[in-house]
Amino acid sequence: MLGTKKIKELMIPLSEYPKVYDDDSLRDAISSLKAFRAGDNRHRSVLVFSRTKKINNEEKLVGILTVRDILNHIKGKTLSYNGAELFAVSWSRFYHKEPLKKSVVTKVGDVISPLVQAFVQSEQSVTDAIRLMMTKNVNILPVFEGQKAVGVIRGIDLLDYIWDMCE
């Protein structure tokens, strides 16, 4: 039955997921994503930890940085303004080094999606993760054991599980 499987049985452990710190740059985050792009591990987000905030003497997970967050930030930094009026978005600037270099020095902590109410506990059922993803409109959820981050569960992992249930 779909609801009997626990999230911990499907989650990706932290060690298998890209990680950066909130005081790292977006360039560091992109580098971390690239380092994990081997085989089936084509992650679309990076877990963001704090070097200064701790939970039981371990670094605290403070947010998730998605590829979309990175692209939206770059887009925002390369728009052309004249006073309050916005001219056409110059997508061609994505292909020029200088605007890109200027936009990727931003600290990850200034761009991340914070963890508000979109997380699960490892002992919760898979249906809880599906419900939360649908109600919060997210594709990835951090997984905790108490207050300690232990992994992530992605929409694609849940879809794979649903497929297996249908076979």
From TrEMBL:
InterPro entries (UniProt xref)? CBS_dom (IPR000644), CBS_dom_sf (IPR046342), CBS_domain-containing (IPR051462)
- Give the keywords, sorted: CBS domain, Repeat
Which SUPFAM superfamilies does this one have?
CBS-domain pair
Query: Pfam families, alphabetically?
Result: CBS
Q: What superkingdom heads the lineage?
A: Bacteria
Ranges for domain CBS: 11-85
Note the PROSITE patterns from the entry. CBS (PS51371)
The cross-references to PANTHER family, in alphabetical order and at most eight, read:
CBS DOMAIN-CONTAINING PROTEIN CBSX2, CHLOROPLASTIC (PTHR48108), CBS DOMAIN-CONTAINING PROTEIN DDB_G0289609 (PTHR48108:SF26)
Record protein name field = CBS domain-containing protein
State the organism named in the record: Desulfallas thermosapovorans DSM 6562
Organism classification, top ranks? Bacteria, Bacillati, Bacillota, Clostridia, Eubacteriales
